[in-house]
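Review session, final week

We close the course with one last complete record, chosen because it touches almost every idea we covered. It is M42 family metallopeptidase, a protein from Halosegnis marinus with 348 residues. Go through it on your own first, then we will talk.
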Amino acid sequence: MPYDFDLLRELTETSGVPGYEDRVRDVVRREFENEVDRVESDGMGNVVGTIEGSGDRSVVVAAHMDEIGFMVRHVTDDGYLRLDALGGWDARVLKAQRVTVHTENGDIDGLIGSPPPHTMDEKDLEGKDEVADVHVDLGLDGDEVEERVAVGDLVTTRQTTELLGEHVTGKALDNRVSVFALVEAARRIDDPEATVHLAATVQEEVGLRGAKALGVDIDADLAIGLDTTVANDVPGFEEADHVTALGDGAGIKLKDSSAIANPKVHRHFRALAEEHDIDYQMEVLPAGGTDTAGLQFAGGATPAGAISFPTRYLHTVTESVHAEDVAAAIDLLVAALEAETDGADYTL
């Protein structure tokens, strides 16, 4: 691969739910340390690696560190855990999944229970799954669970990141693949004209909160969001509803439900992709928002665009991206940052 797959695997397998991104933040700081001019963090937990440019312009690129997960809301007398969702889950995918409970005294492995179909009637089988109905079984008796687990402890799914043919599959590719792109860009950018702020943000999955705060603190001339996007190029969807397709290149966002990309910005990205022979596809996402919106107007009227990683099975424990799309998106990001000059003008 033309990039550091071991680091991508580490980032995706590391746990970090909204508001508790500590472990991921540590990896980002470690990787930024020798690649940028300075590393800073704020009271919310955003981490920004800055590469000083030779000119007067600045660019901020945001990729969120948090993954969807859970918080323990109740421990039963029998030792089962009831959960509250952190981020948008489809509860149908949770049955029989292995999880990790993150306590103050260490991690505990567990699983989400799923009753056998032999004991379920037709009403049970057709009922709507809800996160509130999920229970985590730790294989321990109630007294030991009470000693080791507290309300407020965090829970993440337990999954390895693997190559599956030409695809990379695992948990938290949304949005660790974009965090990985920040690091790869930091490694590749050499003497930019614009100062580049590479921001690993927090709490995107619960309302773009980290990016909204960061947009106030960093007054950039251009904001770029990095995130995954829907690839419904699988059975059961009409071609018009695919949004993107794996293997067709980096996504250049036109719109999602939270932001409309500045026309000059997305046209510039498209021209760069064609100039550098980078595969790309235009993205119109009917639902779902990204940090692009969090940055776009938090500190005023900032021109904004986004580069996306087409992803199948979003918000499940087995998300999938195409290895070559990852390379294309990183190449496009680097090209955009190196092309940013004092003469750039995205006003409309």
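Two points worth writing down before the exam:
The first strand starts at residue 38 and ends at 41.
The domain at 69-157 is CATH 2.40.30.40 (Elongation Factor Tu (Ef-tu); domain 3).
Good luck, everyone.
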